[in-house]
Design goal:
Largest sheet: none
Helix content: over 70%
CATH superfamily of one domain: Tetratricopeptide repeat domain
Number of helices: 45
CATH architecture of one domain: Alpha Horseshoe
Strand content: under 5%
Shape: elongated
Number of strands: 0
Low-confidence stretches: 1-5, 7-19
Length: about 750
Amino acid sequence: MPVRVNVAAILLVAIAIGCSRDPNVRKQKYVESGQRYFDKQKYQEASIQFSNAIQVDPKFAVAHYRLAQSLVRLSHYQQAYTELVRTTDLDPNNLEAQVELGNLLMAGRQFKEAEDRARLVLNKNPNNIEARILLGNSLAASGQLEEGIKELQLAVQQAPNRSTSWVDLGLLQARAHQVAAAEESFKKATSLDPHNVGALLSLGGLYTSQSRFPEAEQAFTKAIEADTRSVQARAALARFYLFRGQPEKTEEVLRQTKMDLGKDPEAYSLLGDYFASQGNFDKAIAEYHLLLQEHPADSKVKKNYIGLLIIARKLDEAAKLNEEILKEHSADADAKLFKAEILIYQGKSSDAISILETLVKTDPNNSRAHYFLGTAYRFAGNLGRAQSEWSEAVRLTPTLIDAQRSLAEVDLQKGDFTALLGRANQIIQTQPTSAEGYTLRTLAYLGQNNSAAADVDAQNAIKLAPHAAAPYSRLAEVRISQRKTQEAEKLFEKALDIDPNYSEALQNLIRIDLAQKQTARAIARVQALIIKAPKNSDYYLYLAQLQSRNNQPEAAEASLQKAVDLDKSNADALFMLAQLQGSKGSLDQAIETAKRSIRSNPKDVRNYVLVAMFEESRHNAQAAEQYYQQALQIDPDYAIADNNLAYLMLQTGGNVDVATSLAEAARRKMPDSPNVADTLAWAYYQKRAYSLAADLLEEAVKKQPDNASFHYHLGLAYEKQNKPSQAKMHLERALQINPSAADAADIIKALREIKG
């Protein structure tokens, strides 16, 4: 008997092993396990099990579909799209998968492809409501709004008691400005299902757009009552209060949301995200610091916190937290992007480029990696490559507003208003309820001298964001183009009332004051604003510029010191401070300030040239030449460095051919500069090309008739051409302009030789 028992046991084990090796059994077990995790909303675990099933059988359509559904819940939409494509390839009759794929295509703005999926399903099942709704939405999104509404009307006829279909119909009717019909559709949806949060929120949004604010507030409140755990409903009420200019109520709703739904990551992050969206980064950082203590295992909280620290330029703190992520997950793409971004702002763009180049090679479809790579190249001074990477980011993800914004800045710098118009239209299409696209399009229209269209867009931007500064500033620019200066001034002041740190508006007000020769008023304006925004380094810079203009050098220097105390890397403030110190003869102090700026802003060539000029003043030609060379290594096209280095070499016995080459390069870049003409003329003089030298010097003297050095050089050129009377006239004029010039003795000697 014992033998029999052992044999039976062995047989049972053999059967179990056989089953475990049967791929059909194994893949089914993985799917069943994954579904159990899915039903418990453990989507990460579910996705692992569905992936295991696919490893057993790569053509197992059910596993691909279940994996896609898990990935959607995890917000991994690109991977979900891939799995849905694979599902429908393996099983074209999975109509649910076809519709879900169509919805992802809609989200990716591939409207025609979404329409094709909807029609494919409807051809097989004309009563498929989800496909009918997908068809209606895809038609509307591609500009066929009336056709889309007709499809949604068919959907509600097919299933008149389906609440969500009435919501979809109402949304399209609202887009078509069929306000009464949209309201009836939303009300029908709520009558069918009083707990339909989407219907109540849509109704609230419709009332808000019609300025029916009490009804809107009631609809949003009812949405919260319908589902007290709906984060979407609470966020909508908060946005409503923000739109109404009631930030206290906005904050109150978000704090209550955090208190009531404190275990929901989407809920407890709302308050910090709100602070960040309003530019209140101190509060946002404080809130996320608290969240990280409360939810240390929430990687999204940590990453959002790192992002805020980077924005606030608290780079060391951000880097420390980011290294914690990389220590645990060395391949984390977000953490790698953060590391690259931190390096960019630390002035280590080449290190950032190295990380990002590797990242885009590994994942060429990572649009944010391309965006940051473009940013790194911009900081490295390679604008062409930057533009290329931003364009690739936009190609991969047209909705990536950061990249669109960077390209818009390039369009503005180039004065390419046609390109800017297209960019603005894309942003408006991506974010139709955001003011940003309209403010950009305002600038495009202004650049095309279309003030009427610019006026309309600026007004639209104000309607969309009545409590933002930028739209008022854009409308003010429109008023300037219409020569309505007083209206413009009030609008700029309105922008600054909303956001005292909105420097663009202040700069425009300063321009208005200076155009009216009201320097004192401009100074008073900046001083008053500094009281409201005491930590704004640039405001002290503007104040210094005005004080310098008003012949107040000591006050200007004090303002510049305050500017650099607030922002130790403020390149413009450091540059002006060094200039001011140099102008009063404090060369050691000026050089130290310029070198300090070089340490903070190593790619800013102005400071290298400034140090070189100061070293020239100290008769330290070797040091000056080194700094000019460094400037040209950073920016080979920097004409001032070409010119000054060429002149220094000519004055100190350097290689005349090299100096001539530099001077010719400067002349090509700055053809209208009399100083550059003088330098090249002096090079030609030393190469004995006196006629060419004289021609250039005549041009220089004509542009600056009171420049003693130009007259001196022209006199010498005429003397070499045997034109004594003309030589004498210009040499005497040089002495008359500056009798104590460093070259005075040489001029007198030249005059004696002409007389002799």
